[in-house]
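User: I'll paste a sequence; please echo it back and then give the predicted structure.

Assistant: Echoing your sequence first, then the prediction.
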Amino acid sequence: MTAPPADLLQGLLALVEAAGVAVCAIAGALAAARHRMDYFGFIVVGAAAALGGGTVRDVVLGLQPVFWAGRQDILLVAIVAALATFWLARLVERWARALDWFDAVGMALFTVVGTEKALRAGAPPVVAMAMGVVTACFGGVIRDILCGDKPMLFHKEVYATASLAGAAALVGMTLSGLGGGPAAWAGFAAALAVRSAAIVFGWSFPPYGGR
């Protein structure tokens, strides 16, 4: 099978990244809605959720400029998505459930983007997997801190584990010679499947209970 052209893969990666930014900005804005913030709060929390993880990834990998600083369209996507949520969030009846599902899709998208970007930057497989998790999860950590919530990543929710499953699937398929689109879809599906099952069935890890 002939590998897709590099410029096509780069274009697809850019589209996936934009979609991830929009979805994570909506998830961040829904958290802002739950805390009854004004429109500026929606923009700040939404943009932080959408851009935070990728910023940390690019800084760690030494990629300059960070992904949104070199593409104003990415920043505009985050702002527009957050502002649209400000006007439409009242139509959503259950904040927590909507936030969970938007966040799950965004996590899966960013897992793919972060892992793929790290591989393309020459990172070893384990480091690429770690960067996928960082990209997917750290925006949510910043969002929760800004909202005064306990970060989802640091308690019993099956969240980072879902991202790790997706990153591992993507890296595994890439190492086996099935990189590009098939690997990206496998990574997205694995991350979303694990997180969706955790939401639907209430999967969680037992917290530390002390002595």
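The chain has a mean pLDDT of 86. The radius of gyration is 17 Å.
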